[in-house]
Amino acid sequence: MLNTLTFIAFLLLALPGHSCPHVEHSRSFPSYNDALEIARSNNERRVTRQVSAPAKTAITNVRVFDGEKLLPLSTVFIEGGVIVPYASEATVVDGNGGVLLSGLIDAHSHPVSVEHLENFASYGVTTAMVMGCYPYDICHSLQNHPGLTDIRFAGQGAVAPNSTHALLGAGVPLNETITSPSQAPDFIARQLEAGATFIKMIAEDVGSPTLSQETMNALVVAAHAKGVRVACHAADYSAVDRALTAQTDQSHHVPNDFPLNSSLISRFVAQNTISVPTLSIFLQFDIGGRPDGAHGFDVATASAGALNAAKVPILAGTDANNVPGPFSLAFGSSLHTELELLVQAGLSTVEALRSATVLAAQHNLLFDRGVVASGMRADLLLISGDPIANISATRDIQRVWIGGVEYTTVSGN
């Protein structure tokens, strides 16, 4: 039985031409050469974009979200791309009594182009975790664009030969698939050499080709030996079970076949495993219609709520992607949808805000961001309303700063 979350978003980046035969709507992807052309264009944009240097800025008359609550009206100073206690002769920006958040972090996304980074930035998403890329040129070309969303990426996801994810997009080269636990150390080394800061592995549903439990275990051991974390795609009950058995650090998606029961949830708690539910993409599937007619969104929402009730840390991730057709999910705006869906699933508004700021930073080892505090990177989102009273207020964007550079063409929301 093929799980619905064989859907696109997992590594669908701009890979060589291949149509996925496993979903109702087949899709064609760019060729390998087209992918390299996209990377070339991204690199060219990096060179030709005109970006101002980080300015001394005093953001006055704002209530800061400190990760737990809103503080009284105050002033936040930026200098040299970081938050500082005070900056003399700073340009004053009146916050008009609004709320200043740390820039949002999308913990699961698939950007391909500079335009996607601009979309992220326009919605206050200042950091994005990119869940796998091949060819590696794509991810490299998205790095180091001053004033645009900062990315961290996994390299090629660990997949079994002839598995659904191995066949998506262009298809994973056979020498990049994993057939034995003995291959794990070399696979991890290749991803780190390509610049990955974490590892992604894919647990397919039972009944289709997938990584063996022994191989999954070996991948986590090899990654941990190198001091890097592992995110596991696990979108059905059996896959989550196997991800937890492998001691993965993060479980991405939640089951859309059967809700998590107390036994699996207790293992999340005991192992300190993080959940990234990606409810947005489940909602997208219900809107587009699933081939089996089931409502995976309802099942996924129930699991997310149960995890939160058990105090499992939850990070906001979307699976935003550029795949054509009903599976496409917008970059930037979808993270605001994710926050709303998490609140509907049972998170408090404060918990939802933490899932896209301080927790997302901490659990992805990004210790220079995630909170509005002196010495931290000046990734900031200024909004008009009160997101603790109404999480949808995160959409009321006034201004965005990334590394101290103001993003000036914020799109309408």
Automatic annotation (TrEMBL):
Signal peptide interval: 1-19
A Pfam family reported for this protein in Swiss-Prot or TrEMBL: Amidohydro_3
Keyword Transcription regulation belongs to the record: no
InterPro entries associated with the record: Amidohydro_3, Metal-dep_hydrolase_composite, Metal_Hydrolase, Metallo-dep_Hydrolase
Keywords of the record: Signal
Amidohydrolase domain boundaries: 198-412
Superkingdom classification of source: Eukaryota
Record GO terms (molecular function): hydrolase activity, acting on carbon-nitrogen (but not peptide) bonds
PANTHER family, per database record: ALPHA-D-RIBOSE 1-METHYLPHOSPHONATE 5-TRIPHOSPHATE DIPHOSPHATASE
Protein name per Swiss-Prot or TrEMBL: Imidazolonepropionase
Lineage summary: Eukaryota, Fungi, Dikarya, Basidiomycota, Agaricomycotina
